[in-house]
Amino acid sequence: MSNRTLFHVLAYADVNRGIAFLEAVGFTRAAIYTDGDGADAVVVHAQYNWRDTGGVMFGQQRPRTTDTGDTADTADTADPAGTPDTAGFVDGVGRAQCYCVVETDADVDRVHAAAIAAGGRSVQAPNNPDYGGRECTVRDAEGNQWSFGTYQGE
Q1: How many CB atoms lie within 10 A of CB 124?
Q2: Which of 34, 91, 138, 140 could be a cystine partner for 41, CB 3.0 to 4.6 Å?
Q3: How far apart are CA 42 and CA 129, in angstroms?
């Protein structure tokens, strides 16, 4: 039984590149489900865990389909605020933001370097904010923003 109670959900246009980034910064694979076998298989659901407390769930960006199996036009499925319906991971690439707690200041520096080596871009180099701890922020190759820090909240 898992004690994980919070997952961020995101989508990748290139799932393999996303997986390489997640593994480089310390996430561990829990599950990957595809719609078939072979080179054309699409990752429809994957879960990668962050330590013992949380994780991310994601899949390959793909067109959303209706209950009848037809591809839906996202312009017809917008909510009243005008946000497209992102079920099926359409339009969801590069929009996630996540904060991951690490144990030590050295871990912040190590994860920052690993993220850059895995194709990420530094948004904020490791630093010591006034509210305590040490933190950094990077964007993965698809634009998702990842912050890593020792600050565990109040």
Answers
A1: 13
A2: 34
A3: 41
